[in-house]
Amino acid sequence: MFRRVHGSGELLLSQIYAVSSTLSYFAVSHWKEKMGRALVFGLCFLLLSPFPFAFSEKCFPKEKKALLQLKKDLGNPYIITSWNEKEDCCEWYCCVTCDERTNHVISIDISSSIPDANLSGPIPPSIGDLPYLESITFHKLPNLVGPLQPAIAKLTKLKSLFITYTNLSGPLPGFLGQLKNLELIKLSFNNLSGPIPSSLSQLPNLGSLQLDRNKLTGPIPASFGSFKKPGPDLMLSHNQLSGPIPASLGNLNPDNIDLSRNKLEGDASMLFSSKKTTQVIDLSRNKLSFDMSHLTFPKKSLIWLDLNHNNVYGNIPVSLTKVENLQQFNVSYNPQLSGQIPQGGELQRFDKYSYFHTKLCGSPLPPCKK
Ligand SMILES: *[C@@H]1O[C@H](CO)[C@@H](O)[C@H](O)[C@H]1NC(C)=O
Ligand SMILES: *[C@@H]1O[C@H](CO)[C@@H](O)[C@H](O)[C@H]1NC(C)=O
Ligand SMILES: *[C@@H]1O[C@H](CO)[C@@H](O)[C@H](O)[C@H]1NC(C)=O
Ligand SMILES: *[C@@H]1O[C@H](CO)[C@@H](O)[C@H](O)[C@H]1NC(C)=O
């Protein structure tokens, strides 16, 4: 409570001093008659003073200033009306969180449940003047435009960068690789373009990289094989990524890897191993071309395997029947995939639409010709 007193705080102290010296004056000279009146007077004085508010103001003035500038630059949107000069920013109704111990602003979360067109413009540079920020969230703001603000490079404490369903455009800046505390980068459903910076692999704590549904181009960086083990979840679907999947990705053991709906080509067998503990592998709708016959699978963990719309060839290995909890499986639209569908495990749980547009045969497809 008393850790921080700014501005009017000193005024408050002098008010208390004035009240207490008034009280002691009355106490000494007219002790009996005047005491009651003085107490009432003093109490009123304290209650009417603006002081209790000033005393509990936790927000750092510099940070409040940065937030108010941010609000102004975003066009004073309705969603952050509660950001006002008069109140403690740590008490604002929406979208700001202060650390309970230090009172620094550690989180901004401007998430709308329906697309809110009222917030507009690029992410303002004043966001860089909130040096204690650990978490930034912007969600469903179609008029949030422009590039990822370069001043974000100053936010070295940032753990979570979550910007989804906006019209953020331009490239993914290399500076993200310097924000060593980042644990989550989720920039799905935006309008980002250009290549994925290889420097992201330098983030030692990254647990999830979600860049799906943008317009990213170029290859998956080979450096991604050197992410700290087991490697982050990689959600890169619905972009225009091209070229081969780097062989180095075989070093990783992510829980989820979704590279679907890109233009990736060549081998993907490095993503499969009985030694991994991956749960979801979605490679559908690419131009991948590799022999499936000798793959092994994480038999305890794998629940989702989608390879539809590629050019996977060979046949479905019997080892797939050993996967205990396969819930989604799809190899349709791989015109070269051939041979008998192994019988057993979970493989007959799926209907013909998991296997059609291939040269496969056997249940759930018609029997193989002798
Ligand atoms: C946008 O803000 C204006 C005032 O600045 C307000 O009149 C309008 O209702 C707001 N629209 C939405 C969708 O909140
Ligand atoms: C991006 O802006 C366009 C209009 O310019 C809009 O139709 C679209 O919904 C916006 N995207 C998102 C994710 O809000
Ligand atoms: C989305 O990005 C493209 C460039 O890739 C740009 O031409 C377009 O204006 C952007 N849309 C919005 C709404 O920012
Ligand atoms: C497998 O993928 C194909 C092609 O997208 C789709 O038509 C089919 O419904 C999918 N099957 C299942 C079981 O999801």
Automatic annotation (TrEMBL):
InterPro entries given in the database record: Leu-rich_rpt, LRR_dom_sf, LRR_N_plant-typ, PGIP
Keyword Cell membrane recorded: no
Membrane topology type: Peripheral membrane protein
Protein name per UniProt: Leucine-rich repeat-containing N-terminal plant-type domain-containing protein
Primary location recorded for the protein, binned into one broad class: membrane
Annotated TM spans: 38-55
Species whose genome carries this gene: Psophocarpus tetragonolobus
Record GO cellular component, one term: membrane
Location of the protein in the cell: Membrane; Secreted, Cell wall
Domain annotation Leucine-rich repeat-containing N-terminal plant-type: ranges: 62-99
Pfam families (alphabetical): LRR_1, LRR_8, LRRNT_2
Keyword Transit peptide: no
Keywords assigned: Cell wall, Disulfide bond, Leucine-rich repeat, Membrane, Plant defense, Repeat, Secreted, Signal, Transmembrane, Transmembrane helix
